[in-house]
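G., the chain you wanted modeled:
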Amino acid sequence: MINNTFLIYGLSEFWRERFHVYLAASILQGFMLYVGLVTAIIAIIYTQVFKQKLNNVSIRAFAVAVYTGIISLAVFNAYSPVIHHLTVKMEKNLVKPMRIALVSDTHLGRWFGNQQIDKMVALIDGQNPDVVLIAGDVMNDSTDAYNKTNMHEHLSKLRAPLGVYATLGNHDYSGNEIAIAEAIERAGIQVIDNKSVWLDDAVLLVGRSDATDPKRPAAADLMGDIQTDKPVLFLEHSPEALAEIKDLPVDLHLSGHTHGGQIFPLTVLLKWFTPLVYGFKSVNGSQFLVTSGYGIGAVPFRLGTRSEIWLITLQPT
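Predicted structure as tokens:
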């Protein structure tokens, strides 16, 4: 009855905020399944291995404790970001190291807002990057919550000496991409969908729109006129283009979108369907990094992943 109530509530605003409430309730029910499995295993060990009589009150208290622990861990992972450091050696001409902060999937909305933006700005400022890159899904489908809670004032504090750049993701291309792009630009962040920009005349940054953009060009078209002996970075939302990118003169491809699966068992299952779900990989001389993202998407939980920021140092060989 509870689940159907949430379902009816969610379908009244399909795939928008109300539906996200239904998804969160469904995840909480999924956690109950995990608790049931863990409790059953412990009960079997207790009765069959140790030959002890089961105390119903104790086993129920244990189940409640496990359920509370899973939810607490999932919320902690979602709202307590970590910083990962990665050094990438550049075979092409690079005079001095460049430090890049990579953020993705902030999904700014009702459950992820000003407090998380302030934390992100503080963490990035503490790393002193030369440039900040945002790999899509900046907002969660619309600018409604962004405008209502004045997130502009907080996001506009995100700064770096060589600038802050973003590409849009599938949740940005949700029918509100123009409003979202304008809001991002007003915050001092340059949207580089299907554009390229030089970083300190040392590194070329190429951005591409999400696959949901009907006008999205092929990567080869964006790279067609590029002839340089300097490093080339390619920023887009999804890592699905690994096969397309690996034969192009791209030194480092940066993306997000997958959330690393976000919640177990998707953390494992997605590896069957995605060329690179999470982490760093080198293919044909091109290097790829997929971040699990800083935000939470539709549900405020992470189990098996954690909110994160990557600090990448481009190192001359």
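DSSP finds ten helices and twelve strands in the chain.

Shout if anything looks off.
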